[in-house]
Amino acid sequence: MIRKKQTVILDLNHLLSLGIKKQASLIHLEPFDDKILIHFRINSELVEIGELDTVKLEDIRDELLSMAGLDIFDHKPQNGSVTTKIDKTKIRLDIQTLPVINGEKISIALLNLDQKLPNLSELGFWGQNLKLLKEVDSCSRGMIIVSGLDHSSKSKTLDNLLEKIAKENKSVSVIETKPNINLNKVNQLKHTVGSKVTISMMLEALIRQNTDAIAIDTIQSLKELKTLVEYSSKSRLVLATLYAKRASEVITKFERIGIEPFLTSSGLKYVIFQKQVKKLCDICRIEKLITKKKSDDILKELDLNENTLLDLINNLEDQAIKTNLGIKDDKKSFNNHLISRFFEANKDELCPKCQGTGYSGVTLISEVIKINPEIEKKILTLASEDELEKTFLKSNVVPLKVDALIKALRGEISIDEVRNLK
């Protein structure tokens, strides 16, 4: 029995060690009729790694549930977490089980707790967007919303902003369901789902303590959002992450749930929208020269005007170089006012960096909107999302697809990632 347990632990450790080596964010063990498939989520992409026999899956399942303090005899959906060390790396395993026809599907999220928080530049912000984010510590009141789809690194952007604000001798607190990293000079409050102490109760306690800046990692209820809006109107700073498909949806969401337009227009200071995309391997990526017609077709597909676009890109990059905001002179996206190349993944199995995937890590493409009087007027008149988007453009916001196109021209991402934004 002891020998069997040791074998199971070795099998599990080997699986987790491989996940860490390949920088997987998730491991999926999926039972089918005649086999168990192992999938890793690497750079947001599902990759099949191999197979497992049924007996081993059951043993690994029981070991994982035991580690997380869950019931191995309960075959209903279960969730749990455990912190452990694999190959001298401290990791947190977020474990989920889900009954399926052929057994139980197991998902294991891997979080490297030894990793440092990447700064805003490392996340993918640069130029004008980075400049705006560096100014948030000057806010003493209002709301800053970091928005995007699931798995878009919203928490990492929020954590950067909180650390920046905390450096200004301000009392800063954040409520998190699963704290991912220890933040410098930020009070981190862990909320346990199902606890008698609700997020709303924690918010009220922080308000009574006269906290300068309060953040919620993910807004989960209407009551929480209303409490945050009310607090931001009382000369305090509030930050939160929010699920949204585009920046303008943040504002219309506020309207739909009954937040008065005058509170939104006066309280909202910044809306950050971001999307996580796969980063091309800089060792084996392939440069593809394109014709003028192909360039025109791509820009037409993206609904971008070449003349104004190229001037905009040049101005953005020149300004970023002058102010040292995330770009060097040798990394300008094109020369001679001509788009003549893009890059694509090579998927060379011999590449030592990407191991044949063609990609190495992820980066963010983003929009950063600083709310100005024109946008405030649109909020007060209950403008549609399309109207808001047009007002953002008139306010010199760098559109998401332009940020993505510049990264594609530099060889950071593929043109397919840009086309997916249509």
Description:
There is one protein chain. The N and C termini lie far apart (57 Å). A hairpin with a 2-residue loop joins strand 2 and strand 3. A 7-stranded mixed β-sheet has the order 9-8-10-11-7-12-15, sandwiched between helices. Strands 3-2-1-6-5-4 form a 6-stranded antiparallel β-sheet. Helix 9 runs antiparallel to helix 12. The mean pLDDT is 88. The protein is an alpha/beta fold and 422 residues long. The protein is globular and about 65 Å long. It has 15 helices and 15 strands.
Structural class: alpha/beta
* Biggest beta-sheet profile: 7 strands, mixed
Cα-to-Cα separation, first versus last residue: 57 Å
- The helix/strand series, from N terminus to C terminus, equals HEEEHEEEHHEHEEHEHEHHEEHHEEHHHH
**What strand order characterises the main sheet?**
9-8-10-11-7-12-15
Counted by DSSP, the helix tally is: 15
**How much strand content do the residues show?**
25-35%
Query: What is the subunit organization of this protein?
Result: single chain
Cα-atom Rg, whole angstroms?
Answer: 24 Å
> Stretches where pLDDT falls below 50 for ≥5 residues?
none
Q: What's the average pLDDT?
A: 88
Number of β-strand runs: 15
Helix proportion range: 25-40%
From the spread of the alpha carbons, the general shape counts as globular
Characteristic terms for this protein:
422 residues, alpha/beta, 7-stranded mixed beta sheet, 6-stranded antiparallel beta sheet, 15 strands, 37% helix, globular
